[in-house]
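re the bet — no i am not wrong, look at it urself. input seq straight from the record:
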Amino acid sequence: MRKIGILGGTFDPPHIGHLVIAEETRVQLDLEEIWFMPSNTPPHKDAAKTGAEERSEMVKRAVKGNPHFRLNTIETHRLGKSYTFDTMKVLRAEHPDIYFYFIIGADMVEYLPHWDRIDELLELVQFVGVKRQGYSLSTTYPIIEVDVPFVEISSTMIRERIRNKLPIRYLVTESVNEYLKEQQLYEDR
């Protein structure tokens, strides 16, 4: 059975921290691939600042060059809020030969009791909790803990730096940086 990790999120924009989490999880758990899965409308956050097509393009650019990383747009094609249970049910039906590992930050580990259909979801996927400063991985749910180098970067911080005309070099990949400039994303207009 193939072992695939899923890293979901708004990726508004995707940054180096996402790539570090994905690569460290892939290596430590000996996963074949990591699928980056941008959400359409996440149930636990406000709407993204950019559209699903733009965020998918940025993820595509961010993962280019790593043969173990893939963009999966299943959630961006769905209207309304993206619930992990619905996504995993479809993916398991389409890929019965894959064992999925769903990668979440420690902030989401604390939020697991509030996830839609969490008990049924646990039958479809193995959760992987990534340590994050200021949050605990303590939970009654079965998760695999992964240590990754702490990289204090957030999409919010990157958007604020762009608005304040500060450089974001080395916080995002060069191809994402180029796309952000070309499209003038997150700039005050």
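see?? Residues 29 and 146 are 8 Å apart (CA to CA). told u. also The beta strands are 2-9, 33-38, 69-71, 98-105, 126-130, 143-146. so pay up
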